[in-house]
Amino acid sequence: MGAGHAHKLYRHGHSPVHALPPHTKLAAVFAFVLVVVSTPREAMWAFGGYAVLLGVVAGVARVPAGFLLRRLLIEVPFVAFAVLMPFVAEGERVDVLGMSLSVNGLWGAWNVLAKGTLGVAASVLLAATTDLRELLLGLQRLKLPPLLVQIASFMIRYGDVIADEMRRMRIARESRGFEARGVRHWGVLAKSAGALFIRSYERGERVHLAMVSRGYAGAMPVIDEVTASRTQWSYALTLPGTALVVCLLGWSL
């Protein structure tokens, strides 16, 4: 669990949200997303309330709005899908600006946009206030299957190594005058991909042998024991707890 890589989504800070134990933040975001998904799409005001809650969290975490909005661009493909829904969905139609749109499609587009955007925003806030090593420790603390945590740990640890290997191979090709310009060059790129796979596999074998020689028996040692007090749990669960109240009002009103 010693993966100390800082990812691009992380924003270093010393806010109360940064200081929370990682497993409490993971549980809070998961519960918040469940509440958002459970909210009826007709309760449009409720989604505005969720957005305000996330805005408060971002303010407490000192995450700038620009930082958050730029990271939300990752959901552009889902936005494009939602925009098409009113045109392709069946059912009752309504004229909007001279266009015939499906009522069910409009509701479906709103449902995807609202819930998807809130879920992505919550995830971005989690990533912005928790580095990768802490996320892995949090997953371990929440009793995620150890093998999955180890796989994620190695992906993080050696992702940069493999990317650097790809960069060196590209520089080696270009230094020999190679430049991919069309389909006829795909064979060279395929051979490069195969060589990269073989090198990565061999590296994995060497790493595994080194781990076994040091006593690895299927479980990584726990170096840092992450704990959380009741106060920290209460602080972290304020977000999903408040969201649950909004959700219940959305179903009753």
Describe this structure in words.
It is found in: Cell membrane. It holds the Pfam family CbiQ. Keywords: Cell membrane, Membrane, Transmembrane, Transmembrane helix. It comes from Streptomyces violaceus (Streptomyces venezuelae). The protein has 253 residues and is mainly α. Helix content is 70%, strand content 3%. It has 11 helices and 2 strands. It has a two-stranded antiparallel ribbon. α7 packs antiparallel against α8 (146-175). The longest helix is centred in the middle third of the chain and has 30 residues, at 146-175. The mean pLDDT is 88.
Quick overview of this protein structure:
By secondary structure, this protein is mainly alpha-helical.
Secondary structure elements and pairings:
Elements: H1 16-19, H2 22-38, H3 44-61, H4 65-71, H5 76-88, E1 93-96, E2 99-102, H6 103-129, H7 132-141, H8 146-175, H9 186-213, H10 230-236, H11 238-252
Antiparallel strand pairs: 1-2
Subcellular location: Cell membrane
Keywords: Cell membrane, Membrane, Transmembrane, Transmembrane helix
Transmembrane segments: 43-60, 72-89, 109-130, 233-251
